Amino acid sequence: MAGNPSELSNELSVTTKPTPVPDPESISVSPSSKTLNVGETQQITATVSPSGADQGVTYTSSNTSVATVTSSGKVTAVAAGSATITVKSKVKTTVKNTVTITVVEPTPSGGE
């Protein structure tokens, strides 16, 4: 009224909550299966859904004498046989997918 300022209000403190990150629901892998010659490598690509979920995954091989896998998903064929690479969410380990790796001996080239 008439340009007279009012008294200051009490101080208000506000804390905002971070935007929640959705839980992982599924993992897609590419390729889903692969045949490799001994000594060959294959990079596995894993995508966690939904897109806003933590994309962190772990990779493990069911048979490291046939195929090994690095923490970044690079598979190395060690010996003939088969192995399953399991890709699991780091946040929700029940969310997983697998890649079937078949390792064969290289076909000898013709000649002596």
UniProtKB/TrEMBL annotation:
It comes from Bacillus glycinifermentans. SUPFAM superfamilies: Invasin/intimin cell-adhesion fragments. Residues 1-18, 27-38 have a biased composition (Polar residues). This is Ig-like domain-containing protein. Residues 23-99 form the BIG2 domain. Residues 1-38 are annotated as: Disordered.
